[in-house]
Amino acid sequence: MGKRIVLVLLHLVAIGGGIVAGLALASALS
Amino acid sequence: MAEGGGPGPTVSRRIVRWVGSLVGIAGVAMCITLMGKAMGSVLAIGGACASGNSAYVIQNPCPNGVPAEMLIGIFGGLAFTVLFLACVGMRNAAVVKLLWTALFLGLGLVFLGTGIPWDGHGAAVTPIIIGAMFVLMGVVPLFVWLPQLWKLLVSGSDDRAGRGTPTAWGSGHDDEASHAFYGAMGKPPPTTHAPPRPPGPPDPPGTYRAPAAPDVGGNRGDGGNRGNAGDGGDSLDVQLAHLAELHTSHALSDAEFIAAKEAAIRRGGG
């Protein structure tokens, strides 16, 4: 259970990183 | 991947799957963000645009970057979804449903943000209607999926998903492999999914009543006489063939396969 929670938190961090990367890429493209 | 190589290959494969799932979900988030930004740019100029060489006169050219953002967003999103799905495995495939919610909720909020008169200008009805519809499409199925997703988070298994696939998130072997492995070892698996026990005399201590296993190569011919792995219900060659099949499909690691094989041979010869 603890390992799964860590994995879920890691994925949430990855989602946040992906959103930031998407905003940066959109700024670079426009 | 040598035989008897211990847990090394399994651990490295699991790490690769973890990294792949993280990259996949981050890529999906990036692509949905790109699509949202592109959609917002198009909505800001009236909701429609065109670009590229055309025989028609383009009245409303697309803002800079919108074509690239949409192309990367759509096809990149699909590619990252495939990567994510491949890395989390079929047993955890239900989490992919969250991407539906993320896509429609994200785009719906973009539409609503465009249509609602935040800065005093007149409300645009069409984006509000579309945005509300997208938000409903994203949120309503979530309530249907939440019990299944919660079960996946708590117990690490999805009864409706396919079996036999080792996953990044699970324990490394599914129910079938777990039963075969622990059945061969002569003890019950550490799982809460214990099969219903058929009526009959109690087993002697130290034996485990394994669930019915699928035919291997159609050579069982035992008329359904399946049950206690310790009472000779399964012949040794069938057990070994079944274990080899699980090992080939990576449901059992090298170490687990060797241990189960040795236990089966020990019991079969004793």
Provide an overview of this structure.
The complex is a heterodimer of chains A (about 30) and B (about 270). Helix content of chain A is about 95%, strand content about 0%. Chain A is an all-alpha fold. Chain A is built from one helix and no strands. The mean pLDDT of chain A is about 90. Chain A is rod-shaped, with a radius of gyration of 13 Å. Chain B contains seven helices and no strands. Chain B has helices spanning about 10-45, 65-90, 95-115, 125-155, 175-185, 235-250, 255-270. In chain B, helix 3 (about 95-115) packs antiparallel against helix 4, helix 5 packs across helix 6 (about 235-250) and helix 6 (about 235-250) packs antiparallel against helix 7. The two termini of chain B are about 30 Å apart. The model of chain B is unreliable at about 1-5, about 160-170, about 170-180 and about 215-230 (pLDDT under 50). Classes of the chains: A mainly alpha (about 30), B mainly alpha (about 270).
Please name the defining characteristics of this protein.
heterodimer; A: 30 residues; mainly alpha; B: 270 residues; elongated; disordered N terminus
What's the arrangement of secondary structure elements?
The complex is a heterodimer of chains A (30) and B (270).
Chain A: H1 2-29
Chain B: H1 8-44, H2 66-88, H3 97-115, H4 125-155, H5 175-185, H6 236-248, H7 254-269
Helix pairs in contact in B: 1-2, 1-3, 3-4, 5-6, 5-7, 6-7
